[in-house]
Each structure stands twice: as structure tokens, then as C-alpha cells.
Amino acid sequence: MLQTAIPQPTQNSPTPPLPLPELYSRIQRHVPPFEWRILADDVAAILKLKREKNAVVLAHNYQTPDIFHTVADIVGDSLALAREAARTDADIIVLAGVHFMAETAKLLNPEKTVLIPDLEAGCSLAASITAEDVRLLRASHPGVPIVTYVNTSAAVKAESDICCTSGNAKKIIEGLGVPKVIMLPDEYLARNTAAQTKVEIIAWKGHCEVHERFTVDDIRELRATHPGVTVLAHPECPPEVVAECDFTGSTAAMADYVGQKRPGRVVLLTECSMSDNVALQYPDLDFVRPCNLCPHMKRITLPKIRHALETMSHEVTVAPEIVDRARLSVERMLAIG
Predict the structure, then answer these.
(1) Among 259, 210, 295, 276, which Cα is nearest to 66's?
(2) Collapsing DSSP states into helix, strand and coil, what is residue 146?
(3) Which residues pair with 182 in a beta bridge?
(4) In angstroms, what is the C-alpha Rg of the chain?
(5) Using a CB cutoff of 8 Å and minimum separation of 24, what contacts does 68-74 make?
(6) pTM exceeds 0.90, yes or no
(7) Cβ atoms within 10 Å, residue 86
(8) Other Cβ atoms within 10 Å of 284 Cβ, number
């Protein structure tokens, strides 16, 4: 049978131009060209769907650079996303993060459609405490205000007096003007905050599966193998780790520290993609990369964001009987800052 020969490329064949070159320029130090040719189809589709549906993508600092630097409209830590979720005029919010963040966005935007690309994107902290646990704590400590980390379910927020983030925990607690508070669910954040204030803090035993794994030995090994390294840690890390590092702060505070202090060599003790995203902003700095991966954050991908917008799934709702009380806890936090 006669077969037609397929023309083969020669060494002089021109390389086709990369799609979406301006967006690729943002992440080219992290994503090789061959991978971008695969990702660009989803990126282009997401951008088109956002325009057609008046949608925005909110991305947490732990999202991968292909999401964080190309399709996200708003990026930041939990506090920044909560603030911006309250301000957006989009009809649809896609939360590139975990479920409690999507619930918070819905609390602040009850008339908007909030989507999470993967329903299994949870959080070890949010799973560590229930609304019934909070009610029992309140009964055991009558009159003591309950300050709840935003890394919790809407049901837990509804049983609380006010929310906080890792960036404003001390401000929120001291702003209550009381001698004692209950702070939940992250034990290490509570203990690290207690070291900065005279307010007595009753803590819960919840931990973040990313940050609880960092140790003092990790830091000492880093300093031995990378002389002069500046070590930054998230306050969800154990207190002994925080005591050993050079700076402690929320993801936003760590990014600001890098931008302002510009340490020549730096390590961020937090989720892996945080370093990737900050490193792309400061190519002249040396980022040492020991990190711990959040399996929940990594459930969010470009194809899943595209699918969420194409199919309008998965829509996040909050039970009517708790929505007003949960929203109030978040709004009280935002009013204080």
C-alpha cells in the first residue's frame, strides 16, 4: 500500500512562538517552555471564562505559580482574601485555596456564587475542632471571649465571638480589652501569640500538618549548610521553632519582610509554593527551599479551575441557621483589622 511520507522538522525549522508570552514571562523561571505550552490552553480558557461570566479568581499564597501569577485576580493570605472578597463586584468568585476560605468568601458575599474547584480541599486545622467543641469550651469558661482563627468551618465561626488571622491575632486579642481569651484551634499560634501579650490565652490542641513538622534541628542544619541564611517562620510553627528563627509572621508579613529587608539568602518555613511565588518576585535573592507540602492546597489546579467555571461547580453554601452568626465573627475581625 502506498504511504505518504510525513514531513519531518529540520534543524532549521523555526520554533513556534510561545502562547500568552506576557503571562509566561511572569513564571518562566519556574515553568519550562514545554510545560507552558500545555498549561497555556487552560490559562487562556480561564481568562475567557472570567470575562464572559464576570468572575474573579482569589488565590492563596500557597497556590502554585501557574495559578498565582497567571489567572488569579486577587492574591494574598487569609486576611487579604477575606478583605478583598468583601469588596469584589464580580458575580462569581472562584476560590483557589481550601474550603474554609471559600466559606468565608460566601459569608461576606451571600448574593454571589462562590465556587471551589475541589471539594476535598480541606484543612487539618479546620478538621481539628467542631461547633460542639466550641460550645463545650464556652460552658467550661463562662464569660471568656472566644477568638477563632479563620482556618475553621463556618459552623465553628458561628459559635465564636470574633475571628482572627495569623497576621492580626495579637491586635484582635488585645483589642477586646479583657484579661483572658480562648483562642482556637491552632495551639502553636495561640502559644506564640501569648508570648507577645499579657492577655492570658486558653488554647486548643489543633495543629497545621504543614507547619507542625518543622523542627529546631531543621533550622540548625540550614544555618550549618547555608551560612548567613535568614530564617523566616510562620507562627503556626512550634514555639521552639519560632524562637530559633530570625522573623515570624503571616505569609503576607514574610513576603513583605523579603521585599523590604532583601536578605541575600533566605528560607521560608511554610508551605512549598510560598517560596516559589516570592522567589519569582525577587530573582536576585537566593531562596533555600526546605518546605512542607500542603496536600489540600495542591488539589487546586488550572484544569480544575477551568472546569469549575465551565460547569459552575462546586458551589459553596453555608447553612441558613449559622450564616448570620458566622458572618458577624468575620465582620468584627475586619472592623478591627
Answers:
(1) 276
(2) strand
(3) 146, 202
(4) 22
(5) 68/273, 68/277, 69/23, 69/26, 69/27, 69/277, 69/280, 70/20, 70/23, 70/26, 70/27, 70/43, 71/43, 71/46, 71/47, 71/302, 71/305, 72/96
(6) yes
(7) 15
(8) 6
Q: Do 249 and 304 touch, CB atoms closer than 8 A?
A: no
**Other residues' Cβ atoms within 10 Å of the Cβ of residue 20:** 16
Q: Exposed (0-12), middle (13-18) or buried (19+): which is 265, by Cβ within 10 Å?
A: middle
Is 99 within 8 Å of 310 (Cβ atoms)? no
Three cell numbers, residue 138: 464556652
Burial 33-43 (b: 16+ CB within 10 A, else e): eeebeebbebb
Polymer length in residues for the chain? 337
- Pick the closest to residue 148 from 300, 326, 301, 316 (CA basis): 326
Confidence at residue 337, expressed as pLDDT on a 0 to 100 scale: 78
Q: In this structure, how many other beta carbons lie within 10 angstroms of the beta carbon of residue 107? A: 28
Nearest to 96 by CA among 113, 74, 128: 74
Q: CB-hemisphere CA count at 13 Å for 299? A: 16
**DSSP helix/strand/coil, 41:** helix
Q: Please state, in angstroms and rounded to a whole number, the distance separating the CA atoms of residues 296 and 118.
A: 9
Q: Is the pLDDT of residue 9 over 70?
A: no
Q: Which three cell numbers stand for residue 63?
A: 497556590
pLDDT in tens, 205-241: 999 999 999 999 999 999 999 999 999 999 999 999 9
